[in-house]
Design brief:
Strand content: 15-25%
Mean pLDDT: 93
Strand order of the largest sheet: 5-4-1-8-9-10-11-12-13-14
Structural class: alpha/beta
Number of helices: 10
Order of helices and strands: EEEHEHEEEHEHEHEHHEEEHHHE
Oligomer: single chain
Number of domains: 1
CATH class: Alpha Beta
Shape: globular
CATH superfamily: Ribokinase
């Protein structure tokens, strides 16, 4: 008997082209790999081209132990490619090629059924840049028990209207502190300093009926507004090799704890340690175990506290 899928990740799968060579990437794919590594049964909905890069990506997905059953193959568009600039290890910038295969994820009845039986659907704003994939996503969200919006705004690949729509449809939202500032500005709720973040998160949760809002603050850790309470976790100090995939592994770890019904502060701290651990490796999807995360966590002294 097959294990029921707990999480479905929807969106881009691509090659990050780095000075050192190409690496598989795409936020939904990275989240799916890390969820799988953390023992959460996960399926990926995406699309690759009918080309050598597509075949190579599918092989990589399979090598990570993930199913490729819902990764479509298209003949009209090439497999996705992103050119990454890693001159600043802490702030990677991307040039995202368009249009590519994942801009054309087709809706199929089997996808509705997959999302309906899963506990969570995870998606970001990047996959919604094209009408075809956006329409598929919008249809699938209507079948989700619990929607997780990983904001991930990459200029110029998003619009205010789409981000606002996805916020309305989400149950849990994760963003970085830059994205929080930008989104608040759209509503005339501008703020300038870190101390104002909790009020902004609370405002967003109320405005969009969100169960949880998570904001990552780089090396300074993360904040989580959940159960009408603010939780904070400090950054975990590590020797950074690159931050590609850190935010994706953070989200995967947060969702693992959330699915298990763990206390929000514990979920957040585990997520911060996971993101930090991934940053000690090159690439978005290094192999690691939950035990390694726990070990790193145990080496830190501060505890997250509700405020």
């Amino acid at each position: 008997m097959t294990t029921p899928t707990q999480v479905v990740c929807f969106g881009e799968i691509l090659w990050d082209v780095l000075p050192s060579g190409k690496q598989p990437g795409g936020a939904p794919f990275n989240v799916a790999v890390h969820l799988h590594q953390l023992g959460v049964p996960t399926q990926l909905i995406s699309r690759v081209g009918d080309d050598d890069l597509g075949v190579e990506l599918l092989d990589f997905v399979a090598s990570k132990g993930l199913s490729t059953d819902y990764v479509q193959r298209g003949r009209t568009h090439l497999t996705g490619v992103v050119k990454a600039n890693v001159d600043d290890a802490n702030e990677v910038t991307y040039k995202i090629v368009q249009p590519v295969a994942w801009d054309y994820i087709q809706h199929e009845p089997a996808l509705d059924a997959l999302v309906e039986q899963a506990d969570m659907l995870v998606f970001g704003s990047l996959s919604a840049r094209s009408p075809a994939t956006r329409e598929t996503l919008y249809r699938l969200i209507e079948h989700a028990k619990f929607s997780v919006f990983d904001v991930n705004m990459r200029p110029p690949h998003y619009t205010k209207e789409v981000v606002k729509y996805l916020l309305q449809k989400a149950d849990l939202v994760k963003m970085n502190h830059h994205e929080l500032a930008e989104i608040m500005g759209w509503f005339g709720q501008e703020y300038t300093a870190g101390p104002e973040r909790p009020a902004a998160m609370q405002w967003l949760a109320a405005r969009f009926g969100l169960q949880a809002v998570c904001v990552t603050c780089g090396a300074d850790g993360a904040l989580l507004w959940a159960q009408n309470q603010l939780y904070q976790a400090p950054g975990v100090r590590v020797q950074v090799k690159d931050t590609i995939g850190s935010g994706d592994s953070f989200l995967a770890a947060l969702l693992k704890g959330w699915l298990a019904g763990q206390e929000p502060g514990a979920c957040l701290r585990f997520a911060c340690a996971t993101g930090a651990l991934v940053a000690t490796h090159y690439g978005a999807t290094p192999a690691f175990s939950e035990a390694e995360v726990r070990e790193l966590l145990a080496s830190q002294t501060e505890q997250p506290a509700p405020h």
